[in-house]
Each structure stands twice: as C-alpha cells, then as structure tokens.
Amino acid sequence: MTRTATAVQNRKFTQNRLLQYLTAIYLTMWVAMAISPVDRMDWLLENLLVFVFCGAAISSVKRFQLSDLSYLLLFVFMTLHAIGAHYTYGQVPLGYWIRDEFGWNRNDFDRIAHFAYGLLFAYPIREIFVRTLAVKGFWSYFLPVDVILATSAFFELLEAWIAQMVKPELASKYLGSQGDLFDAQNDMATALMGAIVAMAYTAWLDRREGVAAL
C-alpha cells in the first residue's frame, strides 16, 4: 500500500485494484443506505456535499491520484457518513449502544463521525500539500490541522444555512444537536482532536522512518 512518498501520480483507475475495490464497495454501501432512509429529506441534505466531493474526486483521478492509504482513509470516512445519513446521525443504532454501554447522555455517533473526519482526512490533505505545493517540515503537519478546523467551521455554518433555507422544521434533526447548546463547537473541537492525533502520529512515523524531507 503506497504512502505519500511513494504514490504513483499517473496511474490509471484500471491499474489501481485497491481503488476499484473501494469504489465498488462504497457504491454498494451507498445504494443500500439510500434505500428507505429514516428521513428522506435529511438523507438528501446530508448527501449534498457527498455529491460534490465524489464528483471532484472522480474528475481528478486522471490528473492526480492520491496514495492507496489516502483512498483507504477517505473510504472509511465516507462509509461512516453513508451510515449516518441513512439513520440521521442522532438515531444510528451503534450510537445508542455506545450511549447505553458507557452511560452517556446522547447518541454520540455524530461525535465519532466528526473525530473520524479530522483523523481520516488530515493525511490526504497533507499529501496534497506535500505533492502539489512541496510543503515540508512543520508546516506539512500544521496546515492539514488548520484546514480541518477551517472546513469544520464552514460545514457547521453551511449546515445551519441549508437547514434554514430548505426546511427550517428539519433543522434540529439535520443539525443533530440533541439538546447540546454547544453542539457546533463540540463538533469542531472533536474534528480538531482527530486531526491532531493523525498528524502527531504521522510526524512520529516519518521521524522513525527517517523521512526528513516530508
């Protein structure tokens, strides 16, 4: 499995067996989760950015392919999101099980997803910085964390705007606050923690392997 330093930049989709498998599995999962979601309107709202992201990813494959590791990380997050969109994040069965098992007060599957966003997206973002802008050293680890925090804040604003414009009465379900007055701030903080963990581990791994240039 390739990492940033060994990624093949001009590899065709037909030559990347892992990417083919991940794409097939995700599409199958997405279609399954699109069938009879808990709330169709909420599912559609949750998938608006998915349509944009997948479109951008597909259009960029011929010009720029990420490493196998980055695609695997993105696949895991997108799978979590497909599950969350199907049930609405506040009603995912796994979240209820975790709540009951640990005695928590809410279904925290949305927190898991936000942490996963930071944890799983930070590495692909870093790869883009390293390979396209030749960012090195401290900044190659700091900038992905910065991007995760900025995009998390933007997503929170976007969610609020969409909920208000499309269907205000759906806002509480779509936003998934579950009575948490600081839900948006907690979501951003959780994503930030995930990104810090990912970049701290990447920096440690690079230092151990002697990847000084990255």
Strand content: under 5%
Q: Can you tell me the overall shape?
A: globular
Which H/E pattern describes the elements? Answer: HHHHHHHH
Number of strands: 0
Unreliable parts: none
Mean pLDDT over the residues:
86
Number of helices: 8
Structural class: mainly alpha
Quickly count the domains.
1
Q: What's the end-to-end separation, in Å?
A: 18 Å
Helix content: over 70%
Rg result: 18 Å
Index terms:
214 residues, mainly alpha, 8 helices
List the helices and strands and how they pair.
Layout: H1 17-34, H2 40-60, H3 68-87, H4 93-102, H5 109-133, H6 137-166, H7 171-175, H8 183-209
Helix pairs in contact: 1-3, 2-3, 3-5, 5-6, 5-8, 6-8
Structure summarized in a few sentences:
The chain has about 210 residues and is an all-alpha fold. Helix content is about 75%, strand content about 0%.
Mind explaining what this structure looks like?
This protein has 214 residues and is mostly helical. The chain has one domain (12-209). It is built from 8 helices and no strands. The protein has helices spanning 17-34, 40-60, 68-87, 93-102, 109-133, 137-166, 171-175, 183-209. α1 runs parallel beside α3 (68-87) and α3 runs antiparallel to α5. The longest helix is centred in the last third of the chain and has 30 residues, at 137-166. The two termini are 18 Å apart. The mean pLDDT is 86.
